[in-house]
Amino acid sequence: MKLKQHLIVFSVLIAIHLSCKAQEMHILSSKILPANDTVWVFKPAKYDAEKNYSIVYLLHGWSGNYKQWNDIAQLQKYADLYNFVIVCPDGFYDSWYLNSPFQSNWQYKTYFIDELIPYIDAKYKRTNSLVFISGLSMGGHGAINLFIEKQEYFAAAGSTSGALDLEARKVNLGLQRLLGKYENNALAWKENSAYANLDKLKDLTKPIFIDCGVADGFFEMNKKFVEKAMTLKIPVYFQYSPGAHNYDYWRQSIAQQFAFFNRISNK
Predict the structure, then answer these.
(1) CB of 224 within 8 A of CB of 168?
(2) How large is the C-alpha radius of gyration of the chain?
(3) Among 84, 88, 87, which Cα is nearest to 64's?
(4) How many CB atoms lie within 10 A of CB 28?
(5) Which entry of 34, 166, 167, 210 is 20 to 30 Å from 179 by CA?
(6) Could you tell me which residues come within 8 angstroms of residue 123 by beta carbon, excluding any fewer than 6 positions away?
(7) How far is Cα 147 from Cα 150, in angstroms, rounded to an integer?
(8) Cβ of 164: how many Cβ atoms within 10 Å?
(9) What single DSSP character describes residue 266?
(10) What is this structure's pTM?
(11) Is 100 left (phi over 0), alpha (psi -120 to 50) or beta?
């Protein structure tokens, strides 16, 4: 698939001298992003370009970057254990992985779907490869929203500690800069909220894995999201346990999600 003209790729593979050869870093530049997007890819140690591998996109949280997930979970061990290709893009400090209606250089959702996915597909995806997406907090919201937007492409989605309903808390965390103040632009907030968009998955047969600690400030939001998914007959798996909005919880959660994606891959 040919990339759009405004996507420029340079320094395609940067040697990571402190890591194994199974890791690659890609730097992508796009006119619809405010800065270059760094994408860290983890391949199985015995990667063979002629074989099929499931691909897992992991989206980091607010104030994080493309390194956050590896800081949490040592991703190379999961790439080796499950034969996954794990893709960690940089969602910037507070992109929320969405399109701003006001800023032409903050169109992350369009970039992800029209530019990043085709780029990764051209390098790693074979015909029978399955693709999954998950994320934490801001990235959990982004993962579900991107899954909804491109539901025919992804095999399943996950979220841990996801801020799944933008309207419920009217959180700022960069959202006002992207969407405007809620009281003036309520429709934009609703149209970009994973909870509001959930209706687009009605009767979908692909599963969603939702995980959130009971001491997390987003727990009730996640519970409400799951209840709505159940009324829409969406196959949703809700996991919760003692824990808060922190690395310790996310480390346990992503291990469960990798196992979940692996079971789907092996069906």
Answers:
(1) yes
(2) 17
(3) 88
(4) 23
(5) 210
(6) none
(7) 5
(8) 28
(9) T
(10) 0.92
(11) beta
Q: Which amino acid is at 166?
A: L
Q: List the chain pLDDT tens, one digit each, 267 residues.
A: 334 444 445 444 443 333 457 999 999 999 999 999 999 999 999 999 999 999 999 999 999 999 999 999 999 999 999 999 999 999 999 999 999 999 999 999 999 999 999 999 999 999 999 999 999 999 999 999 999 999 999 999 999 999 999 998 666 788 999 999 999 999 999 999 999 999 999 888 999 999 999 999 999 999 999 999 999 999 999 999 999 999 999 999 999 999 999 999 998
Output the six-digit token pair for 91. Answer: 């969602």
What domains lie within the chain, and their CATH numbers? Answer: 22-265 (3.40.50.1820)
**Chain position carrying tokens 């095999």:** 155
For residues 1 and 128, give the distance between their C-alpha atoms in angstroms, rounded to a whole number.
Answer: 16
Contact 238, 226 (CB under 8 A): yes
